[in-house]
Amino acid sequence: MKLIELLRLRGIDANKSKIKVVRHEDKRVNVHEFSRKELEIYQNHQGKRVFDGVDYIASFIGEERGLAKLLGVYRVNTPNAIRPPRPSTLSPALRRSIRTAHFYYDLRAVSNFRDLEDRLVVKWTGGYINWVQELLPPKDKPVVQILPEGREKAFSQYGDVLLTYGELCRIVRYPDANADWHTALSSTAGVYLIVDRISGRLYIGSASGHQGILGRWRQYVKNGHGGNKKLKVLLEQRPNREKHFQYCILRTLSRSLTRGEVVTVEQEFKKKFGKIACALN
Questions:
Q1: Confidence at 81, pLDDT banded by 50, 70, 90
Q2: What is the mean pLDDT of the chain?
Q3: What pLDDT was estimated at residue 79?
Q4: Half-sphere exposure of 155 toward its Cβ, with a 13 Å CA cutoff?
Q5: Phi-psi region at 21: left, alpha or beta (left = phi > 0; alpha = psi -120 to 50)
Q6: R_g over Cα of the chain
Q7: For residue 2, is pLDDT > 80?
Q8: Distance between CA 38 and CA 186 in Å, rounded?
């Protein structure tokens, strides 16, 4: 199946509506670090009139090997609408990426494609440099697969782990779809880093025991702060701030180590980063 056919089956006919496909992959900023809300703000702001006269856009996030995963299908309601106020809670990376935008588009997600968001994967044809293309038969996109519900990107290695709060939530809440993550994160203890991407402040923590890092990170999914005092205070003062948190692993450790031995390694990392940087500890 190809994208034009799939859209037609769900009520959007390329012969009757002007449709563009968008592949977000920006050298200036890592769009994979953005939450869904941030990605939608990012694509609403444009430096050129790329969506003028367009009825719908099918928006994708660039993946490896020339693939792209569906962010959503959006109706272009009001081209060149008045730019709304920019929320002060935007992350620095997002603010930088939209500060040169001259046009704001009112893009509204089409509800009957919700079930395919973050699941539909296409092969991006027509060249990577062409990030926005009109969807016509010669430039149609082959549908490669539809991922299981809740599936995140594949786990590769511990040093490559870099997750937003939303990605971590999906990994924890959909264990069958993310079995590779559950196996890897539960197989090791370690020291991890949480970054508040708005302020740049850090929290360094550690995980031990038979459930390893997965067991500790499950606590953050439950309430955002995992019982950490300063994180809890931050979320009380700034509700939903956890949506701007980012998680990575600084070092893996054997699960056979005692809690005290793991904490010793954690303290070493805190010394290396310094008290000012680790302001959330």
A1: low
A2: 91
A3: 58
A4: 17
A5: beta
A6: 21
A7: yes
A8: 30
For residue 141, give Cα distances in angstroms to 1, 64, 73: 9, 16, 14
pLDDT tens digits along 20-67: 999 998 777 788 878 888 899 999 999 889 999 999 999 999 888 889
For the chain, give the number of residues: 281
> If you average pLDDT over residues 212-239, what whole number do you get?
95
* 191: confidence class by pLDDT, cuts 50, 70, 90: very high
The residues facing 144 across adjacent strands are none
Predicted pLDDT of residue 97 = 84
Is 21 exposed, middle or buried, given 0-12, 13-18 or 19+ CB atoms closer than 10 A? buried
- Name residue 271's amino acid: K
Mean pLDDT within 249-278: 95
158: exposed, middle or buried (Cβ count in 10 Å: 0-12, 13-18, 19+):
middle
Please tell us whether the domain made up of 158-273 is placed in CATH 3.40.1440.10: yes
Contact criterion met (CB below 8 Å) for 177 and 183: no
- Residue ranges of domains in the chain: 3-146, 158-273
CA-to-CA separations, 40 to 34, 136, 254, in angstroms, rounded: 9, 24, 40
| CA atoms of 136 and 142, how far apart (whole Å) | 12
3-state SS, residue 132:
strand
Q: Using CB atoms within 10 A of its CB, is residue 197 exposed (0-12), middle (13-18) or buried (19+)? A: buried
pTM of the predicted model, to two decimals?
0.78
Nearest to 121 by CA among 46, 62, 202: 62
User: How many Cα neighbours within 13 Å face the side chain of 122?
Assistant: 27
Answer whether residue 116 shows pLDDT above 80: yes
SS3 content of the chain, % helix, strand, coil (to 5): 35, 25, 40
